[in-house]
Amino acid sequence: DLVRTRPLLGDLAGGTRAAGDTDGLAAKALAATTGADRATWLEAYVRARVNAVSGGTVDASGTAALKELGLDSLMLVRLRNDFARDLGVEIPAAEVFAATDTRGLARMLAEALPQRAAPTTAAPG
């Protein structure tokens, strides 16, 4: 069975999934955040995904240029796919390519994600 003996072919054939959030934990964690916590969570998430894709270490400030981190167009497409899989948000590839740093990617995700509805309170009756 080629899927079992050749991991690369397994990924292409829909066998084993690539590393990343496969059980919805990222989306659940994001859903539990609001306001500034959400922005902080998104920045940490983007840094973690960039680290995973590039095999490197992203500086904590999040201001290093993506090209300086060694990300090429294929890696950026992989990031885009990770965002779609983990968070359920589709970002056009051109926008991902236009991002200058991890903070920019996090802001892009924040803008693309649906905003959580504010909690409603029952009217006094």
Give structural notes:
The chain is mostly helical and 125 residues long. It has a single domain, classed as Non-ribosomal Peptide Synthetase Peptidyl Carrier Protein, Chain A, CATH 1.10.1200. It has seven helices and no strands. The longest helix has 20 residues. It is globular, with a radius of gyration of 17 Å. The N terminus is likely disordered.
Layout of strands and helices, then pairs:
Elements: H1 2-5, H2 7-12, H3 25-31, H4 35-54, H5 73-87, H6 93-98, H7 102-112
Helix pairs in contact: 4-5, 4-7
Organism: Streptomyces sp. SID7958
GO molecular function, one term: phosphopantetheine binding
InterPro entries: ACP-like_sf, PKS_PP-bd, PP-bd_ACP, Ppantetheine_attach_site
Name the descriptors.
125 residues, mainly alpha, Non-ribosomal Peptide Synthetase Peptidyl Carrier Protein, Chain A, globular
SSE sequence, one letter per element: HHHHHHH
- The CATH architecture can be named as Orthogonal Bundle
Number of strands: 0
* Cα end-to-end separation: 66 Å
| CATH 4th-level superfamily | ACP-like
CATH topology: Non-ribosomal Peptide Synthetase Peptidyl Carrier Protein, Chain A
How many separate helices? 7
Q: How does the helix and strand content classify structurally?
A: mainly alpha
Strand content: under 5%
Tell me, rounded to a whole number, the average pLDDT: 76
Task: List unreliable stretches of 5+ residues.
Answer: 1-18, 117-122
Helix content, binned percent: 55-70%
Overall geometry: globular
What is the alpha-carbon Rg in Å?
Answer: 17 Å
Largest sheet: none
- Per CATH, the class reads Mainly Alpha
As for the number of domains, it is 1
Protein name: Acyl carrier protein
Organism: Streptomyces sp. SID7958
GO molecular function: phosphopantetheine binding
Keywords: Phosphopantetheine, Phosphoprotein
